[in-house]
Amino acid sequence: MTRNGPLALSFHALVVLFMLAPLVVVCLVAFTPENTLSLPTSGFSLRWFTAVFERADFIKAFYNSLQLAALAATLATLIAVPAGLAMTRYSFPGQGFLNGLLLSPIIIPHLVLGVAMLRLFALLGVNGSFAWLVFAHTVVITPYVLRLVLAAAIGIDRSAEHAAQSLGAGRVTLFCKVTLPMILPGVAGGWLLAFINSFDEVTLSIFITSPATQTLPVRMYVYATESIDPMMAAVSALVIAITALTMIALDRVYGLDRVLVGKQ
What highest taxon heads this organism's lineage (predicted)? Predict the structure, then answer.
């Protein structure tokens, strides 16, 4: 074990370097003063960040993605929490079917879901609707919340719930004061993963968005097909920064080890 220690450490360091290197390169390119995708060799510049904030289409797409991800993640949480508690505490007909139905979007390619949603929305006459876009994202990200809620609900000690019930606590009080605080790390982690997956979703969204509901990843994809310049690197750097700040804030509040694993 000791003999393999340096080798294992070197392997893990290479894996981390392999994962972080593209992000570092993108962030460096975002500060280039040149008009091409190149590393800044003659100094750093904020010209491409300024260019991003001067583009109304990118600002609108960012707000669309932010609103969409927040609404979809919240709806997915409202679905996953009662479903997860029901499946971990009760046995009922169709339990396996319900579990498979809610988790199935995670194994279906988003390309297939995008084509299916496009056809469905066309039949319903709701193409380009923001509300139905929220519905589509909710379907796709619900499994991420459900998996963490299930992990958190299975591991909780129900003696506190029984004690609260014996003292006369009603169902609403029991859930809000006892059950929810115990599964909150799993719920928060699920909401965060759902939010990030919804915010970054492009394969499904490209089929069902309209010019008025275009999300940031879709706008970036369309822009990348029209021109190649460091503006895309600047947008990517901003998204990376927002994600990093969100993770840091979540770690400060709950601790990432508890949130991502769903431990108490």
Answer: Bacteria
Residue that has been written with the tokens 């500060």 in this structure: 31
Q: CB neighbours (10 Å) of residue 68?
A: 25
What single-letter DSSP state applies at residue 106? G
How many domains would you assign to the chain? Answer: 1
Whole-structure pTM value: 0.83
CATH of the domain at 68: 1.10.3720.10
Three-state DSSP at 158 gives coil
Q: What is the pLDDT along the chain (264 residues), one digit of tens a residue?
A: 455 667 777 877 888 888 888 888 888 888 888 877 777 777 788 888 888 888 898 899 999 999 999 999 999 999 999 998 888 888 888 888 888 888 888 888 888 999 999 999 988 888 888 999 999 999 999 999 999 888 888 877 777 777 877 777 777 888 778 788 888 888 888 898 899 889 989 989 999 988 888 999 999 888 888 877 888 888 888 888 888 887 777 677 656 555 555 444
